[in-house]
Write a structure and sequence with these properties.
Distance between the termini: 36 Å
Shape: elongated
Structural class: alpha+beta
Strand content: 15-25%
Length: 330
């Protein structure tokens, strides 16, 4: 499904999209830089592609729009978390933007209104369509994300509401240990270039995870960081933790005492079955602490049992109980 913006309004596009089965009252649009090898060839190609809803894995449709949206997208919003008057507050910064007048590739998908359709459906459909386009054109026709916006049946543009995850349970588990920080700093200064390269790459992935809003991607980034750190796959991560904790060959203790099997099962479902539900706060905090348990072992410091401290605190058990209660309510 292709629509050219020239001579059309967003209201026209909304009417066209409203004919689809899963249309809601609003539409999500994601805008990308459009750098085709040949615009006429791209348009000719895409006109022959009928984007039926059954094509999409989630059976939720999307449309492609080519044209200049520089006059439509004039601002963006960004949430900022701060502590003010001893309370956590969320502020939204509204930024004016002036896009260059040019053709952009915009992918639009209806936002469902209740029912079984997930609120993530539009993002999932857009992700699939971008992957599909990459088969034929790579990333060049969708080279870089530019902006997001929403619009309704009247063509009224609004800024999308970002998904915000407030700190929960294990996010507040802290280690006020300046002595340990000093020891780590002293040891890291002595490491050889080979280890420094490996650690830096793992930290880059760790950093990506910290700021990633998509939970599956966040989990995967943490997990790959661990695999880079140990230089092998998930089994090696478990073995390395067993070494760090002095469990020897009894890796089952890692699975039970450090809740590693719970984390590993999430990885297995995601990689082997394509299933991902959510990452709880203690899952994420454990992944962070596994990372540093391994680093501490690799640089020759005594084991600090960081992950076990979290497990023994009871935070994980408390969060699981609350999660079970929430599921019963829904």
């Amino acid at each position: 499904m292709l629509e050219k913006l020239e001579g059309q309004t967003l209201a026209d596009l909304a009417k066209m999209l409203s004919r689809t089965e899963n249309a809601g009252e609003k539409f999500l649009a994601k805008v990308y830089s459009f750098i085709p090898p040949s615009t006429p060839q791209f348009l000719e190609f895409i006109k022959h592609v009928k984007l039926k809803e059954k094509l999409f894995p989630n059976e939720h449709g999307a449309a492609i729009l080519i044209g200049d949206i520089s006059k439509i997208v004039t601002s963006q919003t960004e949430p900022v978390f701060v502590t003010k008057d001893k309370k956590l507050s969320v502020f939204f910064i509204l930024q004016k933007i002036e896009l260059p007048a040019a053709d952009y590739l915009t992918i639009v998908s209806p936002i469902p209104t209740g029912g079984e359709r997930s609120s993530y459906a539009p993002n999932e459909s857009i992700a699939f369509l971008r992957t599909f386009l990459a088969l034929f054109f790579g990333k060049i026709v969708q080279y870089k994300w530019v902006a997001d916006f929403e619009f309704d049946f009247n063509g009224q543009v609004s800024l999308p509401s970002p998904v915000i995850r407030l700190p929960l349970h294990a996010d507040f588990f802290k280690l006020v240990a300046p002595d340990l920080a000093v020891k780590i700093i002293d040891r890291l200064q002595l490491q050889l270039p080979e280890y420094r390269i490996r650690l830096q790459r793992a930290c880059n992935l760790f950093d990506m995870a910290l700021n990633q809003s998509d939970e599956a991607y966040r989990f995967a980034s943490y997990w790959i960081a661990l695999e880079v750190l140990v230089g092998s796959t998930g089994g090696a991560v478990k073995n390395k933790l067993a070494e760090a904790y002095g469990f020897g060959s009894d890796v089952s203790r890692v699975g039970k005492l450090l809740l590693f099997d719970q984390i590993s099962n999430i990885r297995g479902d995601l990689i082997h079955k394509g299933i991902f539900t959510k990452i709880l706060s203690f899952h994420e905090r454990l992944l962070q602490l596994y990372f540093w348990d391994i680093v501490i072992f690799q640089i020759g410091l005594p084991n600090q049992s960081l992950a076990k401290l979290l497990v023994d605190s009871g935070i994980a058990e408390e969060e699981l109980i609350r999660e079970s209660q929430n599921e019963k309510l829904t």
